[in-house]
Amino acid sequence: MITEKIISNAPYAASAVTVIAGFTVKDWGVIIGVILTFITVIVNWVYKHRQDQRESALFNQKINNHQKHKNN
């Protein structure tokens, strides 16, 4: 059973290795650049989202404090 899986997947693995081996240094540079750009976009989005949440919480606190002082 395991041998059949290995044999049936071997051509796909060989194709992947052939494609990867055919990449030039420029190709690898482009691939790595695209991956790093994608990671940078995700990290920036996460941190910006967290910053927005913190600023919203602070704004809501200020509004609530202002309303409490106004009512007193």
Task: Give a structural overview.
- The chain is mainly α and 72 residues long.
- It is built from two helices and no strands.
- The longest helix has 47 residues, at 25-71.
- It is elongated.
- The model has no long low-confidence stretch (mean pLDDT 90).
Notable traits:
72 residues; mainly alpha; 2 helices; 93% helix
Brief sketch in words of this structure:
The protein has 72 residues and is mainly α.
Q: Encode the helix/strand succession as letters.
A: HH
User: Total number of helical segments?
Assistant: 2
Going by helix content, strand content and strand pairing, the class is mainly alpha
The whole-number mean of residue pLDDT values reads 90
β-strand number: 0
How do the strands and helices of this protein lay out in sequence?
Blueprint: H1 2-21, H2 25-71
